[in-house]
Amino acid sequence: MKKLLWLLIGIIIGTGIYTGSQAFASTSYKLVSVKYDSSKTPGYTLKHNGPLYYAKNPKRSAVIWNSTHSKVKHNLKNYPNTTWSRDAVAIFKHNGKKSVYYHISQVVADDKPVKAFGYVWHGYLKQGHNPNFQNIGTVDILNFYNNHEYQRYVKLSPSQVLTRKIMALFPNSTVSLDLAKAGLGLNSATYDISNIISPYDKLPTLNDFLNLHSYNLSINQRYTQIKQLLNANGYGAKRRQQKFIIGIYLSNKYLPVSDELNGQTIVIGTSK
Known about the structure:
By secondary structure, the protein is α+β, with helices and mostly antiparallel strands. It has helices at 2-25, 147-156, 161-167, 177-184, 204-213, 219-232, and strands at 30-36, 52-55, 63-65, 72-75, 84-94, 97-106, 117-121, 125-127, 174-175, 245-249, 265-269.
């Protein structure tokens, strides 16, 4: 009888402890406010609307939550080479304390669907493009914050073999993100080429080849043709030893013309 009594007491006490711990663990997060970076629905855009981020510590567990902070959707550590676009800034309240969260969506290439998105504590992120370019393929030129990022991309990305071969023809020249944007025909609000003597050389025959006639050629075939066109436009081996600023945006694969903008470009400028 005593054993049964103590067993019942143990069950009651154990149940109480379990219930209490569960109640504590399930303390809810409340979404206090959310401010969107654009009018588009978060998580479903193909090109970024807001600022870009990457995991500050890619080996650390950093949970991406659903909109009620009740279900784990993803973890930053599983996306070490991903760049994230911020769609919104949210405030969650938990145990009387408020925390800032970002709604982020993975930046995808080639119009692939966005599969990873959700809310993550802002302290897990660092602003800029993911710097692991040695593990990253072709990147949309609009996804670079500055010239340093772009030059690292050209130097390290496996998608930039052709670009590196072309730049090797200009051993004393530098790559310019802003001039590349100008060469592609982007809105002038996206670049600043005030440091370059105007007008820069737009090399129309070379850019016509890149955008209209190079879609079915290999890297080596495109390289050979580009070199020939450079020579034909007055940029032979001797002149290429000079210091130029090169606006170049290429990939190992053909990048198509889109929205009346060049998909690829090589233009040449001189520093003021």
